[in-house]
Amino acid sequence: MSCLLNPSNQHLHSQCDFDVKPKDPASIIQESLSKLLVYYYPLAGKVKIETDGRLRIACNADDNNGLPFLVGTACKLSSLNHLHGIDVQAGFTVALRLSHSVCDGFGAARFFQALTELASGKDAPSVKPVW
């Protein structure tokens, strides 16, 4: 694939020749998420309350059925009519639900940053979490 930047008008012009059909965004995110959860394993677990009231994260096969990954489609994008002047053709959304007991907003931002790094082809996140 080759993409050229035209310095005269500062617009990106792509001349892309793909030898293979590119993956859809959902499969890229799912594959990247699978790799990322090796580093962020507590986010794949479930928060349990112990008999003494303390919280515990269950991260093993006995206590965990895995992380749900859902893919949906929409037939019409007319609900995006508030984006005046923008021609919306396609897109995707990634959502995350987590307990603040496990991760704060900064940690969630790091998680999404790492997810984008792996989705773009890196082998590992540039900042690894410390648990």
From TrEMBL:
Which SUPFAM superfamilies does the entry mention? CoA-dependent acyltransferases
Q: Which InterPro entries match?
A: CAT-like_dom_sf, Plant_acyltransferase
Q: Which Pfam families match?
A: Transferase
Give one GO molecular function term. transferase activity
Similarity remark: Belongs to the plant acyltransferase family.
Q: Give the protein's recorded name.
A: HXXXD-type acyl-transferase family protein
